[in-house]
Each structure stands twice: as C-alpha cells, then as structure tokens.
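The freezer alarm interrupted the setup, so I double-checked each line after restarting. Inputs confirmed:
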Amino acid sequence: MKTIKVSLTFPPAKVTFPLMTMLVRQFELEVNILHADIKLNRTGKLIVDMTGKKENIDNALAFIEEHGILYHIFNGMLTWQEDKCVHCGACTSVCPSRALTIKATDYILNFDKEKCLVCGLCIKACPLGIMRLAQPDSDE
Amino acid sequence: MAIKTIDEINEKIREGKAVVVTAEEMIDIVKENGAKKAAQTVDVVTTGTFSPMCSSGMFINFGHSTPPIRMTKVWLNDVMAYAGIAAVDAYIGATQISESQGMAYGGAHVIEDFIAGKDIRLYAESPGTDCYPRKSITTTINKYNVNQAYMFNPRNCYQNYPAATNSSERTIYTYMGTLLPQFGNVTYCTSGQLSPLLNDPEYRTIGIGTRVFIGGAQGYVAFEGTQHDPGQERMPNGTPVSLAGTLALIGDAKKMTTKYIRAGVFEKYGVTLFVGVGVPIPVLDEDMAVKTSVSDKDIYTVIVDKSGKTNFSQRVSYQELRSGFVEINGRTVPTAPLSSMKIAREIASELKTLIEKGEFFLTEPVELLPKHDKRLNKLDIRGD
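Predicted 3D structure, all chains:
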C-alpha cells in the first residue's frame, strides 16, 4: 500500500467525468479530496490523496492520462529553518488548506503535515526565504 | 491626580522595588483589581512590537582613508547608500535593492549582516577635490571598524494599521503580503494589545526623548515619525481606528542583535526590515492604568481593498482578526498576521527584566508628540 498526493486538472469538457467514483470502483483506491475548484464549463482542479496498491495506483494514473486529465504528483515535504523563523505569519496568509497556522494563544507557527497540499505558495510568501520543499526519502 | 512621578518610579527601579508588568499582564491585573488599585501597585507597563517597518535605515561613518575621499556615491554589498552628506557619512535605507541581485537582497540585509558582525563590501566613487583627492575606494567594513553606525528610522511603530484584502480577480503582491483574489484572505500588521502607541494612545508619556528598547539596544524617540497623524478618528478608549501616530527612532546599531532586527522580502514587492521595539510606559495614575490595560477586543482597525478597485472598508477588532477568520460580504475569509506576536512578547518581557534588574530607566519626554487635529497633506501632481 502506498499514498500519493496528486493534483488533477480537468479540461472544461471533462469536468463532468465521474473520475473519483471510477478510481474507487475500478482501482480500489481510497481517495481523499483535499482541495476542489470545480465549475461547469471551466477548467477544474482537484488535489487528492490516493491510497492503494502500487500497481492499482499506476494503472489509475494511466487511466487518468488516457481520459485527457492532467495530473501532477507532489513528492516533497515542506520544511523550514525553525531557528530562523520569526513567526510573523506571512506564510499562513497564502496557505490554501490551513496547514500553516498561528494560534492566538502561543503565537507560534504551527504546521499540520497531513493538511499540507505541497503547493509551495508559502515558500515565496515567507519574507525570510527559509522555507523549501525537501525531497522524499524514497518512492517505495 | 498623579499618583507617582517618573522620578519616583526611577528611584524604585534603582532600589530594585519597581513593579513591572507586560501590557498583556496588565489586562488581567486591571480586570481583577480595578484601575485605581492597579495604578497604586504597578509602576511600569512594557510593550513590544516586531513588524516589517520599511521606513528604517542606518547612518554610518566609515572613517577616513589616506589619501582621503569625499564619497559621492556609495555601495554596500552592491546596494546603493545615500552619500549626499559629508565625506565619509552615508545612509543605507532598508528598502533599497541590490544592483546585482535585485529584490533578493537589499538595504535591510546589509543592516542585518552588519549587526551580525559580518564584513560588508564598500565601494565608493568621487570626482576628487584638492582636499579629497581619492576618486574611488574598495574595501570591507564591519561594526568593529566603522566609527558610528546608528539606526535612524523616520517612521516606526505605527499606532495602528489597516488590514488588507483584495477584491480583484487576480493575486496581488503588496507590502501587506500576497493577497489572494476575490477577498481570498486578509492580512494585518500590529501587535495590538502589546503595541507601544496603542497603550499610550494619547501620547501622555511617550514623547521626544523617551528611552526605548530598539533592536535589543537602548535607543530614543528622536521626533514624531513621518506621517504622524494624531487627528485620526478614535474609539472612546482613545485608540485610533486606522493610521495615526508614528515615532522616529534612533539607536546604536553596534549594540543591536539580529534577534530583533531582521531583513525580509515580500514577494514581487521588495525588501523591508523587521524592527523590534519595546517602549516602557509609566503608570502615573488611574488613567494610564486604564489605557495600558487595553485589549485586542477593544482595538479596532479597518480592512481595505489593496487592489484599488473598490472603496471597500470594514471595521474589525483585533480579537476578530486573531481568531483566524473574519466575515466579509457574508463569506468567511481567513486572516493572517504579518507582525510577530511571539517576538513582541519576548521584547515586552525582556524589557521588563531589564527594568527589574535596574538596567533600563524611564525618561520624562523632553517634548510631547503633537496632538493636533490637522490631517496629512496630499502630493499634488503638477507636471506632465
């Protein structure tokens, strides 16, 4: 079993294609939608976690490609130099999933890895330039 | 009316008997004991802020070379400094960007590197004169080999600041951070209940000559800050509802630390300097006890549209902003700070410790800050 984080871009004509259902039924994947921006007749975007057998995931990705839906696998993990962080909060302002937050109690930058979409917006938003995407240890 | 004077408070500090609390601690003290009792027991309230403050910079005197040069153009690590003053004086402004690296490095980085003790490359040019024959110089300077290096910041510690949002269809990049389209987010930037001028909203104790904590050193209020605008509309508690008072601050950069002075870059906007400032406020009487107990729920600001497309304006309290969400046009919009409350707290608490240890004394202002109602002048366009 493995989990991958994928962004899916649906051309306007494919927005009504029931991809999620097919991923679950045909490829026995567990799909968790992290972010969705879908409107009729417009390019749609989904960010999902897919969990399942490696073989099934590979087949699913081929299936997605065959149907003209673009995918991009996020493989990286957000890290930052904690000793240099000033906890200003600028990164939290652009985080689409609120994986990065500052709570009104300790005012310390808080990171929820599970929620992170690995979109990288925070990297550019950080005024100190101390955030980056680290490459994963291995694929398997 | 007055319960105690600044002289009396300083005497207590000298004896190690002064009662010092942070502006956040003062909120509960006044809530529990009342302002009258609090005014009798508490002597000093410490404040703090750590925010991007673009209107900052540093004067340096490099010392004279042999033969000497009257520097007319100066670059520090490839960032131009202003040299239209005497021979080896220059002013490096925080927002000036590098001629080779662009926005990735700027005056603020030069200042941070200088404070860190690093060597800075100095290159200067001159037409040469009879008294200053040298026409160029290349060398390195650092905080140990220059004569003076003092930060002089024309505008710090804005008393309040509008929160920012973006009504337009595209992401905009501003000094208030990255603002997402269609009211996608709201950013705000003061330390609210810990902020110096929000704890002395009518400038009763903070004035010209007030000793302050700046960048880890002891500095002073030099003057009213540029764009000082005391005539702003105010709440009944005296706090302004948007931009108002400002401070011009001065302090010895050689004694500062990079813990409290940090360079920053806002994407596609430019370079700025995070400046850490703390101001001690003497609790002279009941009124000052009330003023220093102000909390985020009683401090308001306005959310404005930085895209310039609409006149959108919505009043909001800092308590709401800090909750992480505000409601705009019936929609929940995430909020984010740009000013570090964590470091603001560290400053207020470090200043408290300095005063308790008898290493920081309070000052009577030489002159109070203007409180006039006259609003700011606009710049008319008279050319093509």
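Quick read of the result. Residues 63-146 of chain B form one domain.
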